[in-house]
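for the recovery benchmark. tokens below, seq after
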């Protein structure tokens, strides 16, 4: 979904100047693997966004890409890591896949969450090229949510890891992050696709990977874990729709992903296949502005 190019971009195009592109990567758990297809298009064109913002899984992938790693290298690393960790035959279509993921990560017995997130942090550190925002090749803004103040917190300097850990801390699943005298949870709670942080760019592209869940057959009631996680995403879709009505980006990519939960990383192939339409859409858009 895209609108006519903004006047600022048209002005730079007619003057023969480079257009500054801002890219906002949204939250959506496993569906965020679709972000890699978007970044692969940028690599194919031989360009990089001038600024990136991210929430939740978008913050993770945004941090890796901003550090200078090619999208295909990120994809290969993630795919190989998941293939080593997961056997798709052990996964089911119902809420038990959440418990399977818990076994793969570090369980938190404190009662503040199911997963500490430390193991995932090590996974991120293994590939990340820098530890500080200042060392990134592309300026990055990471969104988290201040739990007690119900407000957005934006990180764009200092250490990267605590910001990303906070941004990905799905309430009730990951342990909240205590950082800078705040209790922080998932950034998608307040800003699912944070394109509003890219106002210094001429063209703003957002990527919404919330997708849609398929109803259970015969109106079967979902399990409790699925109800909680899906309700969280219902609220995110509502926030996103309101933000789009008020101040839309120049292009909002919506990969038509269905039947993939936030922890269904074993469905990577399905995520990539279902996201192929946005590759063509982004190709056409970049050709127009470049």
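predicted aa per position
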């Amino acid at each position: 979904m895209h609108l006519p190019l903004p006047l600022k971009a048209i002005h730079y195009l007619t003057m023969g100047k480079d257009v500054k592109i801002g890219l906002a990567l949204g939250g959506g758990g496993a569906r965020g693997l679709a972000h890699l297809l978007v970044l692969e298009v940028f690599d194919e064109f031989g360009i990089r966004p001038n600024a990136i913002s991210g929430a939740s899984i978008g913050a993770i992938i945004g941090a890796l890409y901003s550090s200078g790693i090619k999208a295909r290298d990120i994809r290969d690393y993630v795919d190989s890591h998941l293939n080593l960790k997961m056997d798709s035959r052990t996964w089911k279509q119902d809420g038990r896949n959440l418990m399977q993921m818990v076994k793969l990560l570090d369980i938190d017995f404190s009662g503040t969450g199911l997963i500490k997130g430390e193991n995932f942090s090590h996974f991120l550190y293994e590939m990340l090229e820098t530890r500080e925002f200042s060392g990134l090749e592309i300026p990055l803004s990471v969104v988290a949510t201040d739990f007690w103040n119900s407000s957005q917190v934006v990180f764009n300097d200092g250490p990267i890891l605590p910001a990303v850990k906070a941004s990905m801390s799905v309430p009730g699943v990951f342990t909240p992050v205590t950082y800078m005298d705040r209790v922080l949870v998932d950034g998608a709670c307040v800003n699912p696709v944070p394109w509003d942080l890219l106002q210094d760019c001429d063209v703003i592209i957002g990527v919404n990977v919330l997708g849609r869940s398929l109803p259970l057959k015969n109106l079967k009631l979902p399990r409790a874990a699925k109800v909680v996680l899906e309700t969280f995403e219902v609220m995110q879709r509502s926030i996103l729709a309101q933000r789009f009505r008020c101040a839309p980006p120049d292009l909002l990519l919506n990969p038509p992903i269905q039947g993939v939960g936030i922890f269904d990383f074993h469905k990577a192939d399905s995520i990539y296949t279902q996201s192929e339409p946005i590759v063509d859409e982004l190709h056409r858009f970049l050709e127009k502005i470049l």
